[in-house]
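Long-time lurker, first post.

We've been arguing in lab meeting about whether magnesium ion would sit comfortably in this protein at all. Half the group thinks yes, half thinks no, and nobody has a model to point at. So I'm putting the question to the forum: if I give you the sequence and the SMILES, can you give me back a predicted structure of the complex? Inputs are below. Any interpretation is welcome too.
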Amino acid sequence: MVEQFRSGYVSIVGKTNAGKSTLLNSILGQKIAITSRKPQTTRHRFLGIKTESENQIIFVDTPGFHSGQKRALNRYMNKVAANALRGVDIVLYLIDKLDWQEDDLQRLKSIPTETCVILVVNKIDKLKDKNSLLPFIEERNKDGLFSSIIPISALKGMNLDELVDLICDKLPYGSHLYPEDQVTDISEKFLASEVIREKCINRLGDELPYRVSVSIDRFSVSEKVIHIDSTIFVEKQSQKGMLIGKSGSKLKAIGTSSRKELEDLLESKVMLKTWVKVKSGWSDNETLLPSMGYDLDK
Ligand SMILES: Nc1nc2c(ncn2[C@@H]2O[C@H](COP(=O)(O)OP(=O)(O)OP(=O)(O)O)[C@@H](O)[C@H]2O)c(=O)[nH]1
Ligand SMILES: [Mg+2]
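Top reply:
Settle the argument with this. Predicted structure of the protein with magnesium ion, as tokens:
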């Protein structure tokens, strides 16, 4: 009976670095989203789908909200995040431990009243004063914005089954929207660009990650090997030098770790080539952004 099936869109939103992508990967039990200890890692909206018997949860991972950065790319990311507050059945609003500010409240007030909002208090494994959790939850309950509040650790897998049960309980009835073996809407090509960007983020200083973008120029699959040619864009000649490193050592390390992870994820041998190019000021250029893959209309 169709009545038994439940299916719905559940966006994972919150400030940058709250652990949204980590949560998505943990719940799905596989890596589809890149993560890092640096803020502003996720730049796009994409889906992660969990189908279990009669329930299909269609998670929407989003860039984190951030302030103080005024570049066109930052404006784009904030818009993508704000759009994910609407047009979904459930919003998981993720916070980093008890980090709660006025801007969180303002953002939540813009969510349509019919949407179910769950406050997810993440990183509780890092919470020093465990006694502060209960009073915080009581305080947030008074805001009257949440249908539930749940503490979790996305990284350590704490309380995730309980969170999934809570979501399933609130999912609307209706037939499944995706085949039960589909886990995401991202392409292998997109995954490749993200993995390379993640390895760049991991190996670069604190500023450079925001100036890096990756394009895949060739993704050809044969029986024995996948050939991937990629270009890493930076904004200045000096950044190109930092990315390449002494005698090409940094770029080589980025390439090797990207290839190894892609071989695992794509379950195939991978031949990866990477080039570095300068595209002057791309991250603050509204007209260039769509050609770099940052397009609100897509
Ligand atoms: N200790 C601890 N660390 C966590 C937990 N969840 C995420 N992290 C770490 O927090 C950092 C940020 O995680 P991400 O998943 O990239 O965060 P995000 O919210 O997707 O960040 P953006 O995409 O930049 O908005 C990473 O270093 C994660 O390993 C958690 O439950 N406990
Ligand atoms: Mg993320």
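For your lab meeting: The chain has a mean pLDDT of 95. Helices lie at 20-28, 72-83, 102-109, 133-143, 160-170, 188-203, 237-244, 249-266. Whichever side wins, do check it experimentally.
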